[in-house]
Amino acid sequence: MKTADKCSSCKGTGIYHKYKGVFEPEEIVPDKKCPSCYGSGFNNRYTDSLVCPYCGYDEEDSWETADESYNYECANCHKSFAFETEHTRTFTSRRVECLNGAPHRLGKRQDFEAYYYERCQDCGHSVRTPKVVGDTKGEG
Q1: Who contacts 126 (Cβ-Cβ below 8 Å, separation ≥6)?
Q2: Is 10 exposed, middle or buried (0-12, 13-18, 19+ CB in 10 A)?
Q3: Are the C-beta atoms of residues 83 and 75 closer than 8 Å to each other?
Q4: What residues are paired with 116 via a beta bridge?
Q5: Phi-psi bin for 102: left (phi > 0), alpha (psi -120 to 50), beta?
Q6: Residue 61 class from Cβ within 10 Å (0-12 exposed, 13-18 middle, 19+ buried)?
Q7: How many angstroms from the chain centroid is the CA of residue 55?
């Protein structure tokens, strides 16, 4: 059984620790839950897998769960709890000069019965050229 790490903010107690300053001692507020772990004592926020807030069980196959907010039963302690999934979008961009006036970099010509077909290697633009009777160019 894999268990999640203890919450670093409350040191695994689930109780709110109010930090006053670098040289001043922290104040423990026993009637308030730790905002970092919602009082569970486990590192269960923004994790790569679903963590039970009761026993800390790390559900390694949690990618199989639904993609929204739902209730879930822990496979270890069998207590039910709520969870939310959060998605992060990332982007990759690249320069495509032919979209800015440069000529297309056409790939290998494909020979079909009535036309030739070429596709730009950068933007995907396709060029379809009809064959002329007596044309013997074939693949180029």
Answers
A1: 117, 118, 119, 120
A2: buried
A3: no
A4: 111, 129
A5: beta
A6: exposed
A7: 26
Between β-strands 115-119 and 126-130, what pairing exists: parallel, antiparallel or unpaired?
Answer: antiparallel
User: Is the CB of residue 16 less than 8 Å from the CB of residue 34?
Assistant: yes
Q: Are 35 and 15 in contact (CB under 8 A)?
A: no
Q: Give the pLDDT score at 139.
A: 45
pLDDT in tens, 4-52: 778 877 777 777 767 666 666 677 777 788 877 777 878 777 788 888 8
As given in the structure block, the two tokens for residue 140 are 């180029």
The whole-number average pLDDT for the span 70-75 is: 85
Q: Which of 115, 123, 103 is nearest to 139 (CA)?
A: 115
113 burial (CB, 10 Å; 0-12 / 13-18 / 19+) is: exposed
